[in-house]
From TrEMBL:
Pfam families: RhoGEF, SH3_1, SOS1_NGEF_PH
The name this protein goes by in its record: Uncharacterized protein
Subcellular localization, as worded in the UniProt entry: Cell projection, Ruffle membrane; Cytoplasm
CDD domains: PH_Collybistin_ASEF, RhoGEF, SH3_ASEF
Record keyword Cell membrane present: yes
Length: 547
């Protein structure tokens, strides 16, 4: 293969598809298997019928507002209890059960294997290193990783330069074809990223030890520039909009010819513009992987060890923050759709103040002055608590009954016994008290563990609000309006049912299946933490579960 063709192939691989990005982040299936095939489904149900415990790990958060669905966080381990339906499985996490989308999880395979992401600690003695030869080999591996980091950074800078100078600069010359708003949608803040990355590469070059590369100290560079990497959040959040706009424009031949002319003029490799625009998303994902590899070959006594360890933690946090912001922004459509399904909604839209469902469930609300008890469905969002009444005949229909401003409330855990305010006996109760107005709300659960989950949920809500304030996360007015517009359109046309309900000839084992399947995030920016396990030894022998 000629050098130029080889270079093109290598770069094409680097700017690969989003499916390739998924493989980069999650490996090639050494520990997990992706569900979905008919063979896997049969094997799972055979194991379940034999009484085996089948577990899966959540790849994405599943936020639900339906009490028949199972909510969980990325990284949670779910016990699969029924997999007869290909799209939706019945499972249990903690002490909750419900339907969940099979595409949101991956099955555990070879669970007796240790986790492969263990890293050395500064206190390790290194007694098992095997002597000077082993250390020389480790130094060489560290040199290889450092060279790889620098090489990919240089290639990445060229990609960014090609985008900014080859495409964006030329587009700005054609005001007849592109508005500034369109260019902002397509390219996002790519120029800001380009400036930051040039400074980062210069810092890496200065820390590179050319005579003894394995002694290079790159960890400090990542720590010094970690705040700059936050700008990737804006880019990654905008990337789906860029894809939509590009897809719309490239339906017109004049835009196809124009983008191709830009590529040829800049002498860029044979990748379309959307391939180039994916590169920053891929890059921010690869930093934790590269740093983990660098730490693996860094001796605990190396001067760079603590900085690399700290940098790995910092870059994982950056990726986690970007992933969280992306998930939150993608979730606002679902919140808007939920609000549009509530009957008799009053007041401002939920998205004006909230963007995250923290917890939901049924509570008994005790009201004054007659201490009247009411069964209500409560939905805890950031900043506010919504409560609704179920329809007497159609239990899936909710009527809006009110909301509470959580920002001004104090959560008080109450002991079982006589309530001094309402003079009634209470059990599994807590009170929401407003210090400024003196108003209070008495709520009760059926079981003690349910009360504890609610108390923890209120604590999580306060922590979420604090983190949003620290990181500056908010929903723009445009995003809110667009989400509400999408919800109203979907309600007008009717919600499409992408998954049919299974036909049961006998009494149903579980409540009816959800009518539609949620879509997982297209871009996964941080791999959920793998948890070691010691059971299900025989599953590795099942061929359908192998990658």
């Amino acid at each position: 293969m000629p050098d130029g063709a080889l270079d093109s192939a290598m770069r094409a691989d680097e700017a690969g598809s989003e499916e390739d990005l998924y493989e980069d982040l999650h490996g090639s299936g050494h520990h997990y298997s992706h569900p979905g095939g008919g063979g896997e489904q049969l094997a799972i149900n055979e194991l379940l019928s034999d009484g085996s415990v089948v577990c899966a790990e959540a790849l994405w958060d599943h936020v639900t507002m339906d009490d028949q669905e199972l909510g969980f966080k990325a990284g949670d381990v779910i016990e699969v209890m029924d997999a007869t339906n290909r799209e939706w499985w019945w499972g249990r996490v903690a002490d909750g059960e419900g339907w969940f989308p099979a595409s949101f999880v991956r099955l555990r395979v070879n669970q007796d294997e240790p986790a492969d992401d263990e890293t050395p600690r500064a206190g390790d003695s290194g007694a098992g290193d095997g002597g000077p030869e082993a250390q020389n080999s480790k130094d060489q591996m560290r040199t290889n990783v450092i060279n790889e980091i620098l090489s990919t950074e240089r290639d990445y800078i060229k990609h960014l330069r090609d985008i900014c100078e080859g495409y964006l600069r030329q587009c700005r010359k054609r005001a007849d074809m592109f508005s500034e708003e369109q260019l902002r949608t397509i390219f996002g803040n790519i120029e800001d990223i380009y400036r930051c990355q040039k400074a980062f590469v210069r810092a890496l070059e200065q820390k590179f030890n050319r005579e003894r590369p394995h002694l290079s100290e790159l960890g400090a560079c990542f720590l010094e520039h970690q705040a700059d990497f936050q700008i990737y959040s804006e880019y990654c959040n905008n990337h789906p909009n860029a894809c939509v706009e590009l897809s719309r424009l490239t339906k017109l031949s004049k835009y196809v010819y124009f983008f191709e002319a830009c590529r040829l003029l800049q002498k860029m490799i044979d990748i379309s513009l959307d391939g180039f625009l994916l590169t920053p998303v891929q890059k921010i994902c690869k930093y934790p992987l590269q740093l983990a590899e660098l730490l693996k070959y860094t001796h605990p006594q190396h001067r760079d060890f603590k900085d690399v360890e700290a940098a790995l933690h910092a870059m994982k946090n950056v990726a986690r923050l970007i992933n969280e912001r992306k998930r939150r922004l993608e979730n606002i459509d679902k919140i808007a759709q939920w609000q549009s399904s509530i009957e008799d909604w009053e007041g401002e839209d939920l998205l004006v103040r909230s963007s995250e469902l923290i917890y939901s469930g049924e509570l008994t609300r005790v009201t004054q002055p007659q201490a009247k008890s009411q069964q209500r469905m409560f939905f805890l969002f950031d900043h506010q608590l919504i409560y609704c009444k179920k329809d007497l005949l159609r239990r899936d229909v909710l009527y809006y009954k009110g909301r509470l401003d959580i920002d001004g409330l104090e959560v008080v855990d109450l002991e079982d016994g006589k309530d001094r305010d309402l003079h009634v006996s209470i059990k599994n109760a807590f009170r929401l008290h407003c210090g400024t107005t003196g108003e209070s709300h008495l709520l009760c659960t059926r079981k003690p563990e349910q009360k504890q989950r609610w108390l923890k949920a209120f604590a999580r809500e306060r922590e979420q609000v604090r983190l949003d304030q620290e990181t500056g996360f908010s929903i723009t007015e445009l995003q809110r309006k667009q989400a509400m517009l999408n919800a109203s359109k979907q309600q007008a046309t009717g919600k499409p049912k992408t998954i049919g309900r299974p036909c049961y000839l006998t009494r149903q084992k579980h409540p009816a299946l959800p009518s539609s399947r949620p879509q997982p995030q297209v871009l996964v920016l941080a791999e959920p933490r793998r948890k070691p396990s010691t059971f299900w030894h025989s599953i590795s022998r099942l061929a359908p579960f192998r990658k």
